[in-house]
Amino acid sequence: MRQELVELLRSKGISDERVLTAINRIPRHTFMDPAFLGHAYEDKAFQIGEGQTISQPYTVAYMSEWLELESGMRVLEVGTGSGYQACVLAEMGAEVYSIERFKKLHDTSRKQLDLLGYQRIHTFFGDGYAGLPELAPFDRIIITAAAKEIPQALLKQLRPGGIIVLPLGTGDDQLMIKLTKTSGGDFRKEVGDNFRFVPMLPGKVE
Ligand code: SAH
Fold it and tell me: What parts of the chain have a pLDDT lower than 50?
């Protein structure tokens, strides 16, 4: 089933073999409610509790490819959710730092990541709008919830030459945006496809 998902993603335009290999390796079904077990390798998002979702595999693959990741890079993720996206980045060789605002999702994803042995994924319970200044700068930043505006605190935590990818917008759909920080501290912007994400919200929920 996983192999079929990989072929589907390939047919949808994902060409980075590292992304496809990662998706081929990760047991997505273990990140989901057993009620959805038979659907885990469909290219769909599913509820994970607290009104949140595990992203659609195509979306995960698109963002992972667009990050232009290199092995050994330090990546900040906002929105741990199930932990699945973090695993894809870790499988691609990244050192992942991931923040989640729901305590319950933070706890569940941590257990799951430990079960699978992902010690290179560091998870934090907190508000992603603040990022992790004490661990900055990051080579890459990925926001996996729809941001109304680009969080300025996160731009400061990106190293020169670094890349941030995020879905931007307030409507039902959001445009995927990539910003590359220049050595002078400016940003070069690229616009990608349309996606549908749950909103990025301020504050944390105990
Ligand atoms: N990357 C996740 C996708 C989860 S959906 C996965 O692979 O499963 C987006 C997640 O972002 C939700 O869990 C939501 O609670 C979280 N989120 C939204 N706003 C946030 C914020 N300000 N800080 C941290 N997490 C946030």
Answer: none
